[in-house]
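User: quick one
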Amino acid sequence: MPLTREEVVNLAAIYHIQLSEEEVARMQDEMANILEQFESLSQLDTDGVEPTSHAVPLATVMRKDEPVPSYPHDAVMGNAPDTEGEFFQVRTVLED
Amino acid sequence: MEHYDITIHEARALLGSRQISATELTESVLGRINSVEPQVQAYVTLTEDVAREAAAAADQALAAGATASLTGVPMQIKDVMSTKGIRTTCSSRMLENFVPLYDATVVERLYAQGPVLMGKGNMDEFAMGSSTENSAFHPTHNPWGLDRVPGGSSGGSAAAVAAGECLFALGSDTGGSIRQPAALCGVTGLKPTYGLVSRFGLVAFASSLDQIGPLTKDVEDSALVLNAIAGHDPRDSTSIPGERPDYTKALTGDIKGLRLGIPKEYFGDDLDPAVDAALRQGIKTLEDAGATVEECSLPLTSYALAVYYIIAPSECSTNLSRFDGVKYGFSAGDAATAWETQERTRALGFGPEVKRRIMLGTYALSAGYYDAYYLKALKVRTLIKQEFDEAFQRFDALITPTTPTTAFRIGEKANDPVSMYKSDVLTIPVNIVGIPCISVPCGFSEGLPIGMQVMGKALSEETILNIAYTYQQATDWHAKRPSGLG
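Assistant: Done. Structure below.
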């Protein structure tokens, strides 16, 4: 069953991505087709099974809190689309 | 044989004995790139000037008696790994003009061994895809059949190695992105154990699955490159501590008594009969070399695809949220507010497959669906891991096909995401459980290469490399080169 238009538009809003009407329509069908492939998992009994987020066991890694040189400020800012002085520049965040 | 067709270990012998210079070798590869790149399109960025300088430096080093393992050897790096001062695009409009300030750890480690960077490899955008058709710039063509895909997402890397446009390449493998293109292009591709190779400087796609590895012309080269890139890195918190062995020492050619399992689920109805026949022959070769072979079963195999296509989009949707049009990369200039900048930047900067996976991931992680999809997938991941753990109590390695078919036609699956996803069905389980796996060429069907996978338990690279090496000692599929290019 295709996703509703509202569901797709709502997900796009959560992610802050703009989709065209055509993209929304395509996503309704494509996502439904893909989600259908996931249904098979419900056949498996996973009661009492622990989830695995990483296949190789990991412990929290700590390092010494020692200062190290950072990258030069102007080099970092050189990749920014829009700057003013030392700062990133963005459009209006809060409207009047 | 032309210089561009040789392996790394052959190049080392020729360079070390001064029969050729690094400059001659680099010029041979540059000439090859000039003649075949218009057809193959394996590169996003070519770095001829960097290459010529590095070759000249390598010649000086060789004259002074250099012993670094890759001195003067031409290589390509997939464009998902950061290269200082050289643009790193991920084949995306989002990073079309992005120039990193630092080298990825793997790049640093390679540079320490003296190779020559020819350029950055084309790929599916942000490594999402199985055909390299999702590159925002251009598709890559399979050197064995130019109307065919090279596989993906490391398609530019596999095609460049197959076509002689470099001697080796580094790729990344999240669900098969090294092994599947290696199989479809007739080269050797290794996905190491998760955590063996540092991912610092690799643009993240799905962090619990991504791993970097070599694409080479044979297994000996694979071990040489793995020696250079493997190692603990404090800048990657998932990096496994401790020393790494010399992987070339494991290549003894002796596999007598090793126990090989053949999981029957990898030989299902969807397997092309020609692939099946090539695999049966390949398994016979390993048996003749002294291994014992026994059929086994991994009943959860068919569930791995669903687990992957929940976990990978979920992780990618969080990883790619860093692209906001503010700090680096593309930014939509036509927005009125900061939020609109972000929405428009993603609308214009990401291609269709990336948007699809972001949306799927956002869905699987959203309130109301998290337990049913994401958490369920992580639990099934546990069951799949247990199944592999049990198999590796009985077997030293598992042998399977790498792909169900040979290379499909460009455009054939481009508009059918589910069918495209299914082309990864045999490579995905390895990433879910984090184990190492190598794909080697094991035959041809109608002129197109077929690949065989050797899977081992975590950190058993020495075992699987030796099995694959022993196979290549008995066969010459890996020595074939495509004709009719240029």
